[in-house]
Specification:
Blueprint lengths: L7 E3 L21 H5 L1 H5 L3 E5 H4 L8 H17 L3 E6 L18 H21 L3 E5 L4 E2 L7 H18 L4 E5 L8 E2 L4 H9 L7 E6 H6 L4 H10 L3 E6 L18 H13 L7 E4 L14 H18 L3 H9 L3 H12 L5
Helix pairs in contact: 4-5, 5-6, 9-10, 10-11, 12-13
This protein binds D-glucose and magnesium ion (MG).
Length: 346
């Protein structure tokens, strides 16, 4: 925990080999165990996990074996002073999920997705976290005529209800994203995710995770997405990062592209006391050009940027801001904010 009370997390996928769709890995793989040793050094206390990060090959294991492996991991994490923030079922790599998971046209694939998600819930339980993140990677279409978006909405709701009923303590945070890998995803924004959650059998247990890059790819402002979710007490985690325009999902270091957008995300998180409700997750990737021994600086930079922006948010002259708003002098306010961000007097 830092001096402001925030706790930070990332997932093992955020230390990666640098492969992209046009080129192979450029850095050697680090084992999961090795990655875990980096967390504390970098100031992170919690680990975000896919179900199969926690329990490799879970499709080949019995429910009892899955629980046992997760229990062992809980101890490994504890020995390192770490704990799990959430578990996310990885519903986008298995051959059964080629045409979608909960919304696949194939009933067997849909059944697989539900069974797999139940296993993820068991893993979360054993790891001592009540939070499951649903990034609905392949719920959407490449070809509009292949599926029915209305039917898909009901299928997603049914999947969520099934999981809520399966584990009475489970909370589900939906992570919206508008595209990639799909052309068009069914749950592209915070509004879609919240609407779905409010329809659930136990709406109290469904919330959201806001990822900066995903909001930007939807043409939305991440700070407004945060505020909208927090207005209803629904923001349970974040994936802070950055994104340069409407391109592939870049997962750049937090604040690396647009400092003011980053500042406003931190400002609204801080004003709404996010440290009391959730963990600050960094879903960032090192640039492919980064040599192996220097490939965790994106995590260090993102965390440090967050803390510097908390400092800037708290040192903003609130009286001056209020006076300029009252005078409707928004140009002067613009100047005050920009000056504050570059550390100069207005
Ligand atoms: C990809 C997503 C992905 C998820 C992660 C957790 O665009 O951001 O990284 O956050 O798989 O479910
Ligand atoms: Mg993410």
């Amino acid at each position: 925990m830092d001096k402001y009370g925030y706790r930070f997390s990332f997932g093992p996928w955020n230390i990666h080999e640098g492969a992209d769709p046009f080129g192979p890995a450029v850095r050697p793989s680090r084992t999961f165990a090795d990655k875990l040793t980096v967390y504390k050094e970098l100031g992170f206390d919690l680990v975000q996990l896919h179900d199969d990060d926690a329990v490799p090959n879970l499709d080949e294991l019995s429910p009892a074996q899955i629980r046992q492996t997760a229990r062992t991991l809980k101890q490994t994490l504890a020995d390192l002073g770490l704990s799990a923030e959430f578990v996310a079922p990885r519903l986008w790599e298995h051959p059964m999920t080629i045409d979608g998971a909960y919304t696949s046209n194939d009933p067997q694939a849909r059944a697989y997705a539900i069974e797999r998600s139940k296993k993820a819930a068991d893993i979360a339980q054993e790891l001592g976290t009540d939070l499951m993140v649903l990034w609905l990677a392949r719920e959407g279409t490449y070809l509009r005529e292949t599926k029915d978006a209305g039917r898909a909405a009901h299928q997603l709701l049914e999947a969520i209800n099934t999981l809520l009923a399966y584990d009475a303590n489970l909370r589900i945070a939906i992570e919206p994203k508008p595209n990639e890998p799909m052309d068009l995803a069914y749950i592209p924004t915070m509004g879609h995710a919240l609407a779905l959650g409010f329809q659930a059998d136990d709406p109290k247990r469904v919330g959201v995770l806001m990822e900066t890059a995903h909001s930007l790819l939807a043409g939305l402002d991440p700070a407004d997405e945060i505020s909208f979710a927090m207005a209803f007490g629904k923001l349970w985690s974040v994936h802070l990062n950055d994104q340069n325009g409407l391109k592939f999902d870049q997962d750049r270091s937090f604040g690396a592209i647009n400092l003011r957008t980053a500042f406003n995300q931190v400002r609204v998180l801080d004003e709404n006391r996010f440290w009391e409700v959730g963990v600050v997750g960094m879903d960032v990737k090192a640039l492919r050009t980064q040599p192996a021994d220097l490939a965790t600086k994106h995590l260090r930079n993102s965390l440090s940027m967050f803390l510097r922006l908390v400092e800037l948010s708290r040192s903003l002259d609130q009286a001056a801001v209020a006076a300029l708003i009252a005078a409707r002098d928004y140009e002067e306010l613009d100047w005050l904010i920009l000056s504050h961000l570059i550390g100069r007097a207005a």
